């Protein structure tokens, strides 16, 4: 698999600011014998849950803002963004060197070795205890690939998945996906239309969705996003609205089957 070149070269924004609306708590289930925290946000009476997988910069002010705004969109969701990198995000000195970036991801973001599935399922279990009855999965960059892997599992509890500026997403990496997906590409990602067309052949109750933000760079809703820039802020809000609408629509379709 190849990494979007912008992912290797573009640093995180260091002048972003946001007052978090949620809180960090510890997941009820330990992962590989160790506690993990998660960021919880959104209305606590919502029965719709979202598990979020951040990008390689881990928790970042723009990422928190993205999570908070998504949790408040389209009637509200309980959103849980677990700690996938307990030691923190990527070393900024690695950027610009694709070998080092891929090496870091292989060490800290491997689906099996780093217990990605176990972390997401632990978050689902806590959201279920909090009253959620449907679960969607949102990722950023590398996180969209992880989301695709999770919803490729037999018996996945998630009813939809996807996210903005997806890395590694292809016909091959999505061939076993068992839910509809929403893919919001920036100008830096490959063509996602073939992936969407393949997913829609599967006959899910809600069709998968794609929109390209040709005026945005890779990572604009996460660590590389500067929402002090009006153009990025506007595109960020549009992405939030599209994601919230999609997850709400799939949750409603799932509820109608119960």
TrEMBL record:
Specify the superkingdom.
Answer: Eukaryota
Q: State the Gene Ontology terms under molecular function.
A: hydrolase activity
The residue ranges of the Dienelactone hydrolase domain are 38-189
Which N-terminal residues, if any, form the signal peptide?
Answer: none
Please give the name of this protein. Dienelactone hydrolase domain-containing protein
Q: Which organism is it from?
A: Linnemannia gamsii
